[in-house]
Design goal:
about 180 residues; alpha+beta; five-stranded antiparallel sheet; 5 strands; globular
Length: about 180
């Protein structure tokens, strides 16, 4: 919903949530943990500076849901072609809007350590409200799904691949038990 929905009328927001809930009921939407909660499966975005969007569980929610060991990994927008191809005026504009340094724009994937199943995705940075749509399709799938995905526009989607690769590395390092 847009900010105008909150200011003028809640009817547009209520209508949108009602239609999303109906679709979820028809499709029998379940969270990764098996509990019925369609709202967690609905992507959400805040059009702030920087943009913020998410779908699924936070690390804290996942830990409380008895899903086993939960890890997260990040992929940075700075690792993408679009970031590298910014013109000086774009860089100046980005700096004025939000500091947009390497660490300020990222995709964070929350996943189960043993199965590498994605339970949440959080995106911060310009365009996150668009990128969250792909993230929605990753919930309940493994990090390997992301690595095997074919992106039609690889400009910012590359950050998903970076996050998935970092997640695989983190999952492997956490699963190795060092003998005493």
């Amino acid at each position: 919903s847009a900010a105008g929905d909150c200011v003028t009328s809640h009817l547009a927001t209520a209508a949108e949530l009602t239609s999303q809930s109906a679709v979820c009921c028809l499709l029998d939407c379940y969270m990764v943990s098996g509990q019925k909660d369609g709202l967690k499966l609905m992507p959400s975005a805040i059009w702030s500076l920087p943009e913020i969007s998410m779908v699924g569980l936070t690390e804290e929610e996942a830990a409380k849901s008895n899903l086993g060991t939960i890890l997260s990994s990040k992929g940075f927008f700075a690792d993408t072609a679009k970031w590298a191809l910014r013109t000086p005026s774009m860089i100046h504009h980005d700096t004025l809007l939000d500091s947009n340094s390497r660490e300020d724009a990222f995709i964070k994937i929350v996943f189960k350590q043993t199965s590498l199943v994605v339970v949440g995705v959080h995106i911060v940075g310009a365009g996150s409200s668009e990128l969250i749509q792909y993230a929605h399709s990753c919930i309940g799938k493994t990090l390997h799904f992301i690595l095997r995905s074919a992106f039609t526009a690889v400009t910012m989607s590359k950050a998903f691949v970076s996050a998935a690769k970092a997640g695989l590395a983190a999952g492997m390092s956490h699963s190795m038990v060092m003998p005493k």
